[in-house]
Amino acid sequence: MKLKKITGLSFSLALLIVSAMAQAGDGLKLPETSAGRRLSAFVSAFNTGDLKAMRDFHQNNDSEGVLAGGVEGMLEQDKQMQQELGTFAVRKILDSSEHAVEAVLQASKGQWFKIRLTVEAQPPNKIIGIGLEPTDPVDGKKPGATAGASPAQAPAAGRAAEDMTVDAKMREEVIEGAIKNLNDYYVFPDVAKQMEKALRDRVQRKEYDSVTSARAFAEMLTGHLREVSRDKHLRVVFRANPIPERRPGSEPSPEEIQEFQNSMKAANWGFEKVERLEGNVGYLDLRGFYDATSGGDTVAAAMNFLANTDSLIIDLRKNGGGSPAMVALISSYLFEGDPVHLNDIYWRPDNSTRQWWTLPYVPGKRYGKKDVYVLTSGTTFSAAEEFTYNLKNLKRATIVGETTGGGAHPGGPRRINAHFMVGVPQGRAINPISKTNWEGTGVKPDVETSADKALKTAHLLALRKAVEAKSNPAQKARIMQTIATLEKETKETGEQKGSQ
């Protein structure tokens, strides 16, 4: 295989390599750390050879910065890497800490690599990058490399995994740029000042002087800013490829618009699965609240399919958020009559408040007043939490699962320089009923259970209510049989986990 293909690896390809080796019969065991556990979590998805399983892993384990590059492109390269290199075994652990691991890997087709994976310093410790380079067997040294080679000179694993060296001038530029953007745009000006003071205090203590990795520097700044703000939408991001400059108010190019549409289409606008479960219960697995304008036809098609079910389960356990416009569009199918006030979002930059209501018209059939259940997990985040919070406060849905992630401050990236930007939360949700939001607390479920049991739990709730309304003996008997089966499966799952 040509070196060009190695240097073009994506983050996910590198991760695929490490994960595959964890189950190789003669490979070393991965460390029991945050970084090691993220690698182990990938193994089951990788070894299936199934792109859906890989997609699920990326969406649940990759950080926002990694996911910003697009899942579909990573998946395409994942498959290519699997085909060309086969499986991998860990031959040596070079370095391991709670948030990073470096190892030497051997491919089943003979190639050797050195790999370094890093996760966030703060919970939930999601993956922020991987560097991968060819190496000699076992010793972890790149063929022909000198001992003092700079990390910036080493081939790396694609746009999400590359790194570069930062010096004192660059560190100062990034810190000052982050402080300016936070003071100009962060939703709470007083908190922005607190974050500025915290960073300047750390500069005075020379805490950043020894940091030379751009990616590690971005991770460190993110952790320090979140220590003050407790805001999970706030992030400093490093990009190896130059970040283009944009004039204020400038529109994206036709090429950028087309790329955006292609990525939305590849993800089916977040609609992963729509089906009819036993007992005429509808099920919608929604992985993101994507663009409402271009995704409207997909929404209508899904809701038309579900319109004749007796109750509906909306699965947001793997949904990381998206657009409030899509939240409003999907919500509109769940209400009848006059428009319903869902949420307000206050924006600091122009000191404005945008109200979000259900729509007076939707294409296709509305779902009416039938029961709705929303499934949540600890990774349900942002717009997915808004959808959940809105319906809970309006008493339109029963929430089943885990408390959500706790991010209610939307915003966007602000460019600092050619390689760094800061994700600045510029607004905050204000629910018209509670007069507050879910920031920092998450949305608490009505029925609390683990994420892996949420679907069966909600299905049981729907069936128990449905069986009471059935008058047809045959239909009633069939539902009772399904209830018995689900109860048995739920009990067995609990017993198996208890014995592990």
SS-based structural class? alpha/beta
Number of helices: 15
Strand arrangement, major sheet: 6-7-8-11-12-16
Shape: globular
How many β strands by DSSP? 16
Mean pLDDT, rounded to whole units?
83
Which bin fits the share of residues in helices? Answer: 40-55%
Main β sheet profile: 6 strands, mixed
Q: What is the CA-CA span between the terminal residues?
A: 42 Å
Give the uncertain stretches in residue-range form: 1-26, 140-161
Strand coverage percent: 15-25%
Which oligomeric form is depicted?
single chain
Give a nutshell description of this structure.
40% of the residues lie in helices and 19% in strands.
Topology:
Blueprint: H1 3-7, H2 11-21, H3 34-48, H4 51-61, H5 64-67, H6 71-85, E1 88-97, E2 100-107, E3 112-119, E4 127-134, H7 168-185, H8 189-204, H9 214-229, E5 235-238, H10 254-266, E6 271-277, E7 281-286, H11 292-306, E8 311-315, H12 324-332, E9 341-347, E10 352-357, E11 371-376, H13 383-393, E12 398-401, E13 411-415, E14 420-425, E15 427-430, E16 447-448, H14 454-469, H15 473-499
Parallel strand pairs: 7-8, 8-11, 11-12, 12-16
Antiparallel strand pairs: 1-2, 2-3, 3-4, 5-14, 6-7, 9-10, 9-15, 13-14
Helix pairs in contact: 2-3, 2-6, 3-4, 4-6, 7-8, 8-9, 11-12, 12-13, 14-15
Explain this structure to me?
The protein is of the alpha/beta class. Helices cover 40% and strands 19% of the residues. The longest helix is centred in the last third of the chain and has 27 residues, at 473-499. Residues 1-26 and 140-161 have low confidence and may be disordered.
